[in-house]
Amino acid sequence: MAHLRGNKFNMPVMAKVSGEKAMNKCRLLFFMVLSITLFSSGSLYAGAAVEPILEDARTTLNKAAAKGFEWTTTRKLIEGAEIALAAGEKDKSLKLAKAALNEAEKSLTQANYAEAHWRAGIPL
Question: I need a labelling partner for 21 at 20 to 30 A (CA). Which of 9, 27, 90, 105 fits?
Fold first, then answer.
């Protein structure tokens, strides 16, 4: 069964009603499969990205430790991330690795600031 409907130029166009319903179902199915694929691949990528973050955290922490500004909690966060990764808890591991990298960067920033402004700490 066909009926007339207007397009964006307000010109009548013949369209099949049953064809439109089938097309809408196909579109819905396509977007459902696409969204499931996108959401599931995000968690796989998150697990793969843990190791580079841990390596950056270790390197940055070692630089801060060489300057005498190693924070005590950062190594614990790195160890926790490694344990979580070995146990298959990728989300927890990623969270701990990011926290360790954040702390390592802050400790290095503190070390660099202290190195540049040590004279300001001497009382006159």
Answer: 9
